[in-house]
Amino acid sequence: MAKPVIDPDNLPYGDGDFYAFEELLSEAERNRLHEIRAWLKAEVKPIAAEAWNQGVFPRSIIPKLAEIDIMSPVHRQGHSSLFAGLVHAEFTRADTSIATFMGVHDGLFTGSIEALASQEQKAAWLPDIYSLKKIGAFGLTEPLGGSDVAGGTRTTAQRDGDNWILNGEKRWIGNATFSDWVVIYARDLADNQVKGFLVDTTLEGYSATKIENKISLRSVENADIVLDNVIVSDDFHLKGANSFKDTNKVLKVTRLAVAWQAVGQQMAAFDVARRYAVERQQFGRPLASFQLIQDKLVQILGNTVSSMGMMVRLAQLEDAGAAKDEQSALAKAFTTARMRESVAHGRAILGGNGIVVDYEMAKIFADAEAIYSYEGTHEINTLVTGRAITGIAAFV
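RESULT FIELD:
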Protein backbone atom coordinates (compact mmCIF):
# COMPACT_ATOMS: atom_id res chain seq x y z
CA MET A 1 0.00 0.00 0.00
CA ALA A 2 1.47 3.36 -1.07
CA LYS A 3 2.18 5.88 1.67
CA PRO A 4 0.12 9.08 1.46
CA VAL A 5 1.90 12.11 0.05
CA ILE A 6 2.15 14.94 2.55
CA ASP A 7 1.23 18.39 1.28
CA PRO A 8 3.46 20.93 3.09
CA ASP A 9 1.01 23.72 2.21
CA ASN A 10 -1.74 22.07 4.23
CA LEU A 11 0.13 21.21 7.41
CA PRO A 12 -0.90 22.69 10.78
CA TYR A 13 0.75 25.95 11.82
CA GLY A 14 1.35 26.91 8.21
CA ASP A 15 1.98 30.53 9.21
CA GLY A 16 4.65 29.48 11.72
CA ASP A 17 2.78 31.30 14.53
CA PHE A 18 2.81 28.32 16.91
CA TYR A 19 1.45 30.25 19.90
CA ALA A 20 -1.03 32.38 17.94
CA PHE A 21 0.58 35.72 18.76
CA GLU A 22 -1.23 37.25 15.79
CA GLU A 23 -4.47 36.85 17.72
CA LEU A 24 -3.30 39.73 19.92
CA LEU A 25 -3.81 42.09 16.96
CA SER A 26 -7.12 43.77 16.29
CA GLU A 27 -9.20 42.16 13.56
CA ALA A 28 -8.40 45.06 11.21
CA GLU A 29 -4.66 44.74 11.86
CA ARG A 30 -4.81 40.97 11.42
CA ASN A 31 -6.56 41.32 8.08
CA ARG A 32 -4.02 43.93 6.99
CA LEU A 33 -1.14 41.67 8.00
CA HIS A 34 -2.58 38.83 5.91
CA GLU A 35 -2.98 41.22 2.97
CA ILE A 36 0.66 42.29 3.24
CA ARG A 37 1.79 38.67 3.57
CA ALA A 38 -0.02 37.77 0.34
CA TRP A 39 1.48 40.80 -1.41
CA LEU A 40 4.99 39.80 -0.35
CA LYS A 41 4.45 36.29 -1.66
CA ALA A 42 3.24 37.62 -5.02
CA GLU A 43 5.60 40.57 -5.55
CA VAL A 44 8.76 40.06 -3.51
CA LYS A 45 9.44 36.33 -3.26
CA PRO A 46 9.61 35.78 -7.06
CA ILE A 47 12.34 38.41 -7.57
CA ALA A 48 14.35 38.10 -4.36
CA ALA A 49 16.86 35.37 -5.24
CA GLU A 50 17.84 36.80 -8.62
CA ALA A 51 18.31 40.30 -7.19
CA TRP A 52 20.47 38.79 -4.43
CA ASN A 53 22.58 36.86 -6.94
CA GLN A 54 23.11 39.99 -9.04
CA GLY A 55 23.85 42.17 -6.02
CA VAL A 56 21.50 44.90 -7.24
CA PHE A 57 18.48 46.40 -5.48
CA PRO A 58 15.30 45.81 -7.54
CA ARG A 59 14.20 49.43 -7.80
CA SER A 60 11.09 48.44 -9.75
CA ILE A 61 9.62 47.35 -6.40
CA ILE A 62 9.60 50.93 -5.03
CA PRO A 63 6.40 52.11 -6.82
CA LYS A 64 4.70 48.91 -5.72
CA LEU A 65 5.74 49.54 -2.13
CA ALA A 66 4.21 53.00 -2.45
CA GLU A 67 0.94 51.50 -3.69
CA ILE A 68 0.45 49.22 -0.70
CA ASP A 69 0.90 52.23 1.61
CA ILE A 70 2.76 50.77 4.58
CA MET A 71 5.03 53.66 5.49
CA SER A 72 5.18 54.69 9.15
CA PRO A 73 2.54 52.26 10.45
CA VAL A 74 2.65 53.55 14.04
CA HIS A 75 3.40 57.28 13.80
CA ARG A 76 1.35 57.99 10.68
CA GLN A 77 -1.23 55.23 10.43
CA GLY A 78 -1.93 54.69 14.13
CA HIS A 79 -1.25 50.96 14.21
CA SER A 80 0.17 49.16 17.24
CA SER A 81 3.87 48.50 17.65
CA LEU A 82 3.02 44.79 17.56
CA PHE A 83 1.49 45.18 14.11
CA ALA A 84 4.51 47.15 12.89
CA GLY A 85 6.86 44.51 14.27
CA LEU A 86 5.01 41.61 12.71
CA VAL A 87 4.93 43.40 9.35
CA HIS A 88 8.70 43.92 9.50
CA ALA A 89 9.15 40.26 10.38
CA GLU A 90 7.01 39.31 7.38
CA PHE A 91 9.10 41.49 5.08
CA THR A 92 12.22 39.76 6.35
CA ARG A 93 10.58 36.38 5.95
CA ALA A 94 10.08 37.19 2.27
CA ASP A 95 13.44 38.86 1.64
CA THR A 96 15.90 40.36 4.11
CA SER A 97 17.33 42.83 1.61
CA ILE A 98 13.99 44.47 0.81
CA ALA A 99 13.14 44.40 4.52
CA THR A 100 16.43 46.22 5.17
CA PHE A 101 15.58 48.80 2.50
CA MET A 102 12.38 49.45 4.44
CA GLY A 103 14.26 49.46 7.73
CA VAL A 104 16.56 52.17 6.41
CA HIS A 105 14.01 54.33 4.58
CA ASP A 106 10.99 53.87 6.85
CA GLY A 107 12.88 53.27 10.09
CA LEU A 108 16.20 55.05 10.41
CA PHE A 109 15.65 57.81 7.85
CA THR A 110 11.94 58.53 8.30
CA GLY A 111 12.28 57.90 12.04
CA SER A 112 14.94 60.61 12.22
CA ILE A 113 12.60 63.11 10.55
CA GLU A 114 9.59 62.12 12.66
CA ALA A 115 11.53 62.23 15.94
CA LEU A 116 13.98 65.09 15.40
CA ALA A 117 12.71 67.52 12.74
CA SER A 118 10.69 70.63 13.55
CA GLN A 119 7.00 70.76 12.71
CA GLU A 120 7.76 73.01 9.72
CA GLN A 121 10.42 70.60 8.47
CA LYS A 122 8.09 67.61 8.87
CA ALA A 123 5.36 69.38 6.93
CA ALA A 124 7.78 70.12 4.10
CA TRP A 125 9.52 66.75 3.88
CA LEU A 126 7.31 63.92 5.11
CA PRO A 127 4.67 63.84 2.33
CA ASP A 128 7.27 62.90 -0.31
CA ILE A 129 9.00 60.52 2.11
CA TYR A 130 5.78 58.68 2.97
CA SER A 131 4.83 58.38 -0.71
CA LEU A 132 8.35 57.13 -1.60
CA LYS A 133 8.77 59.99 -4.07
CA LYS A 134 11.93 60.75 -2.12
CA ILE A 135 14.11 57.85 -0.99
CA GLY A 136 16.20 58.29 2.14
CA ALA A 137 19.34 56.92 3.76
CA PHE A 138 20.85 57.19 7.24
CA GLY A 139 24.48 58.21 7.72
CA LEU A 140 25.91 57.46 11.15
CA THR A 141 28.46 54.61 10.91
CA GLU A 142 31.94 55.57 9.74
CA PRO A 143 34.96 53.73 8.30
CA LEU A 144 36.73 53.92 11.67
CA GLY A 145 33.66 54.17 13.89
CA GLY A 146 30.88 51.70 14.62
CA SER A 147 29.59 51.23 18.16
CA ASP A 148 31.88 54.00 19.44
CA VAL A 149 30.25 56.80 17.43
CA ALA A 150 28.22 57.55 20.56
CA GLY A 151 31.37 59.28 21.78
CA GLY A 152 31.40 61.60 18.78
CA THR A 153 31.68 61.17 15.05
CA ARG A 154 34.78 61.93 13.02
CA THR A 155 32.52 63.59 10.46
CA THR A 156 32.34 67.28 11.35
CA ALA A 157 29.91 70.15 10.94
CA GLN A 158 31.03 73.78 11.08
CA ARG A 159 28.57 76.68 11.23
CA ASP A 160 29.16 79.36 8.59
CA GLY A 161 26.49 82.04 8.81
CA ASP A 162 23.20 80.52 7.65
CA ASN A 163 24.95 77.36 6.43
CA TRP A 164 26.81 74.36 7.75
CA ILE A 165 29.91 72.86 6.13
CA LEU A 166 30.11 69.06 6.43
CA ASN A 167 33.32 67.07 6.06
CA GLY A 168 34.01 63.41 6.64
CA GLU A 169 33.19 59.88 5.60
CA LYS A 170 30.41 57.40 6.30
CA ARG A 171 30.36 53.64 5.62
CA TRP A 172 27.76 50.89 5.24
CA ILE A 173 25.06 53.38 4.33
CA GLY A 174 22.13 51.44 2.88
CA ASN A 175 20.20 52.92 -0.09
CA ALA A 176 22.86 55.62 -0.50
CA THR A 177 23.72 54.77 -4.12
CA PHE A 178 20.25 55.84 -5.28
CA SER A 179 18.72 57.84 -2.43
CA ASP A 180 17.53 61.41 -2.91
CA TRP A 181 18.28 62.43 0.67
CA VAL A 182 20.45 61.16 3.49
CA VAL A 183 20.37 62.15 7.14
CA ILE A 184 23.99 62.79 8.13
CA TYR A 185 25.04 62.87 11.77
CA ALA A 186 28.13 65.01 12.33
CA ARG A 187 30.05 66.49 15.28
CA ASP A 188 29.63 70.24 15.63
CA LEU A 189 33.11 71.72 15.97
CA ALA A 190 31.73 74.52 18.17
CA ASP A 191 30.28 72.41 21.00
CA ASN A 192 31.49 68.87 20.16
CA GLN A 193 27.89 67.60 20.06
CA VAL A 194 26.47 65.31 17.36
CA LYS A 195 23.90 67.07 15.18
CA GLY A 196 21.70 65.81 12.33
CA PHE A 197 21.32 67.24 8.81
CA LEU A 198 19.13 66.38 5.84
CA VAL A 199 21.54 66.30 2.90
CA ASP A 200 20.48 66.38 -0.75
CA THR A 201 22.61 63.77 -2.52
CA THR A 202 23.03 66.05 -5.57
CA LEU A 203 24.97 68.66 -3.56
CA GLU A 204 28.49 69.46 -4.65
CA GLY A 205 31.10 67.58 -2.64
CA TYR A 206 28.83 64.62 -1.87
CA SER A 207 29.65 61.20 -3.34
CA ALA A 208 28.53 57.62 -2.65
CA THR A 209 30.36 54.51 -3.85
CA LYS A 210 28.76 51.08 -3.70
CA ILE A 211 30.43 48.48 -1.47
CA GLU A 212 31.01 45.36 -3.54
CA ASN A 213 31.74 41.68 -2.84
CA LYS A 214 29.42 41.23 0.15
CA ILE A 215 28.30 37.78 1.28
CA SER A 216 25.21 39.11 3.06
CA LEU A 217 22.31 41.39 2.08
CA ARG A 218 23.66 41.42 -1.44
CA SER A 219 20.61 43.26 -2.82
CA VAL A 220 21.11 46.13 -0.37
CA GLU A 221 23.27 48.79 -2.00
CA ASN A 222 25.45 49.82 0.93
CA ALA A 223 27.83 52.66 0.16
CA ASP A 224 30.87 54.56 1.30
CA ILE A 225 29.96 58.25 1.49
CA VAL A 226 32.43 61.12 1.22
CA LEU A 227 31.47 64.65 2.29
CA ASP A 228 33.98 67.19 0.98
CA ASN A 229 33.01 70.69 2.11
CA VAL A 230 29.32 69.97 1.51
CA ILE A 231 27.34 73.15 2.19
CA VAL A 232 23.96 72.59 3.87
CA SER A 233 21.55 75.38 4.73
CA ASP A 234 20.59 75.69 8.40
CA ASP A 235 17.03 75.09 7.23
CA PHE A 236 18.15 71.45 6.77
CA HIS A 237 19.62 71.06 10.23
CA LEU A 238 17.17 68.82 12.10
CA LYS A 239 16.10 71.17 14.87
CA GLY A 240 15.73 68.41 17.45
CA ALA A 241 19.03 66.67 16.63
CA ASN A 242 21.61 68.38 18.82
CA SER A 243 23.32 65.57 20.74
CA PHE A 244 23.86 61.84 20.47
CA LYS A 245 21.17 61.45 23.11
CA ASP A 246 18.75 62.80 20.51
CA THR A 247 20.08 60.36 17.90
CA ASN A 248 19.57 57.48 20.31
CA LYS A 249 15.82 58.18 20.33
CA VAL A 250 15.81 56.87 16.76
CA LEU A 251 18.19 53.98 17.39
CA LYS A 252 16.16 52.60 20.30
CA VAL A 253 13.15 52.08 18.04
CA THR A 254 15.09 50.78 15.04
CA ARG A 255 16.97 48.33 17.26
CA LEU A 256 13.58 46.78 17.97
CA ALA A 257 12.93 46.57 14.24
CA VAL A 258 16.15 44.60 13.75
CA ALA A 259 15.17 42.22 16.52
CA TRP A 260 11.90 41.70 14.64
CA GLN A 261 14.01 40.95 11.58
CA ALA A 262 15.69 38.19 13.58
CA VAL A 263 12.21 36.75 14.17
CA GLY A 264 11.36 36.96 10.47
CA GLN A 265 14.64 35.35 9.48
CA GLN A 266 13.88 32.40 11.71
CA MET A 267 10.37 32.12 10.27
CA ALA A 268 11.94 32.00 6.80
CA ALA A 269 14.37 29.28 7.89
CA PHE A 270 11.51 27.28 9.39
CA ASP A 271 9.41 27.64 6.24
CA VAL A 272 12.16 26.39 3.93
CA ALA A 273 13.49 23.67 6.24
CA ARG A 274 10.07 22.19 7.00
CA ARG A 275 9.03 22.11 3.35
CA TYR A 276 12.30 20.51 2.33
CA ALA A 277 12.13 17.93 5.12
CA VAL A 278 8.58 16.91 4.16
CA GLU A 279 9.20 16.78 0.41
CA ARG A 280 12.72 15.35 0.29
CA GLN A 281 12.96 11.55 0.14
CA GLN A 282 15.88 9.84 1.87
CA PHE A 283 16.22 6.04 2.16
CA GLY A 284 12.77 5.74 0.63
CA ARG A 285 10.93 7.96 3.10
CA PRO A 286 10.54 11.68 3.87
CA LEU A 287 13.52 13.34 5.48
CA ALA A 288 11.09 14.62 8.12
CA SER A 289 10.54 11.06 9.36
CA PHE A 290 14.01 10.97 10.91
CA GLN A 291 14.26 11.88 14.59
CA LEU A 292 17.33 14.11 14.27
CA ILE A 293 15.63 16.14 11.54
CA GLN A 294 12.53 16.62 13.67
CA ASP A 295 14.79 17.68 16.55
CA LYS A 296 16.36 20.42 14.42
CA LEU A 297 12.98 21.61 13.17
CA VAL A 298 11.65 21.82 16.73
CA GLN A 299 14.75 23.73 17.84
CA ILE A 300 14.19 26.26 15.03
CA LEU A 301 10.55 26.58 16.06
CA GLY A 302 11.41 26.95 19.75
CA ASN A 303 13.97 29.66 19.01
CA THR A 304 11.46 31.47 16.82
CA VAL A 305 8.64 31.30 19.36
CA SER A 306 10.83 32.43 22.26
CA SER A 307 12.16 35.33 20.19
CA MET A 308 8.66 36.32 19.11
CA GLY A 309 7.35 36.14 22.66
CA MET A 310 10.05 38.54 23.84
CA MET A 311 9.25 40.91 20.98
CA VAL A 312 5.50 40.80 21.60
CA ARG A 313 6.01 41.89 25.19
CA LEU A 314 8.46 44.59 24.16
CA ALA A 315 5.98 45.89 21.59
CA GLN A 316 3.39 46.18 24.35
CA LEU A 317 5.86 48.12 26.50
CA GLU A 318 6.68 50.38 23.55
CA ASP A 319 3.00 51.21 23.05
CA ALA A 320 2.73 51.98 26.77
CA GLY A 321 5.74 54.29 26.55
CA ALA A 322 7.60 52.08 29.02
CA ALA A 323 10.23 50.35 26.84
CA LYS A 324 13.80 51.00 27.97
CA ASP A 325 17.06 51.11 26.00
CA GLU A 326 18.48 48.12 27.83
CA GLN A 327 15.37 46.07 27.03
CA SER A 328 15.86 46.83 23.35
CA ALA A 329 19.52 45.86 23.70
CA LEU A 330 18.68 42.51 25.30
CA ALA A 331 16.11 41.80 22.60
CA LYS A 332 18.61 42.54 19.83
CA ALA A 333 21.28 40.36 21.47
CA PHE A 334 18.98 37.44 22.33
CA THR A 335 16.94 37.19 19.14
CA THR A 336 19.95 37.43 16.85
CA ALA A 337 21.79 34.72 18.77
CA ARG A 338 18.77 32.41 18.48
CA MET A 339 18.53 33.36 14.80
CA ARG A 340 22.10 32.27 14.17
CA GLU A 341 21.33 28.87 15.70
CA SER A 342 18.11 28.54 13.72
CA VAL A 343 19.55 29.30 10.30
CA ALA A 344 22.46 26.94 10.97
CA HIS A 345 20.01 24.13 11.79
CA GLY A 346 18.06 24.97 8.65
CA ARG A 347 21.15 24.90 6.49
CA ALA A 348 22.15 21.53 7.97
CA ILE A 349 18.73 20.04 7.21
CA LEU A 350 19.20 20.86 3.52
CA GLY A 351 22.66 19.29 3.43
CA GLY A 352 24.56 20.19 0.27
CA ASN A 353 21.52 21.97 -1.14
CA GLY A 354 21.76 24.33 1.82
CA ILE A 355 24.68 26.16 0.21
CA VAL A 356 22.88 26.81 -3.10
CA VAL A 357 20.76 29.97 -3.38
CA ASP A 358 18.26 28.10 -5.60
CA TYR A 359 17.01 26.36 -2.45
CA GLU A 360 16.68 29.67 -0.52
CA MET A 361 18.38 28.52 2.67
CA ALA A 362 21.84 29.68 1.60
CA LYS A 363 20.52 33.25 1.22
CA ILE A 364 18.71 33.06 4.54
CA PHE A 365 21.84 31.70 6.23
CA ALA A 366 24.13 34.40 4.77
CA ASP A 367 21.73 37.31 5.38
CA ALA A 368 21.49 36.40 9.06
CA GLU A 369 25.10 37.51 9.52
CA ALA A 370 24.23 41.12 8.69
CA ILE A 371 21.27 41.14 11.08
CA TYR A 372 23.58 39.78 13.79
CA SER A 373 25.91 42.77 13.37
CA TYR A 374 23.99 45.91 12.46
CA GLU A 375 22.08 48.24 14.79
CA GLY A 376 24.61 47.40 17.50
CA THR A 377 26.58 44.16 17.44
CA HIS A 378 25.56 41.23 19.61
CA GLU A 379 28.53 41.99 21.85
CA ILE A 380 27.82 45.70 22.42
CA ASN A 381 24.13 45.03 23.13
CA THR A 382 25.14 42.34 25.60
CA LEU A 383 27.36 44.85 27.40
CA VAL A 384 24.62 47.48 27.44
CA THR A 385 22.35 44.93 29.12
CA GLY A 386 25.14 43.88 31.47
CA ARG A 387 25.63 47.47 32.55
CA ALA A 388 21.92 47.75 33.31
CA ILE A 389 21.82 44.69 35.57
CA THR A 390 25.12 45.28 37.41
CA GLY A 391 25.51 49.04 37.44
CA ILE A 392 29.04 48.51 36.09
CA ALA A 393 30.10 49.41 32.55
CA ALA A 394 32.38 46.85 30.88
CA PHE A 395 33.18 49.25 28.04
CA VAL A 396 34.27 52.87 27.84
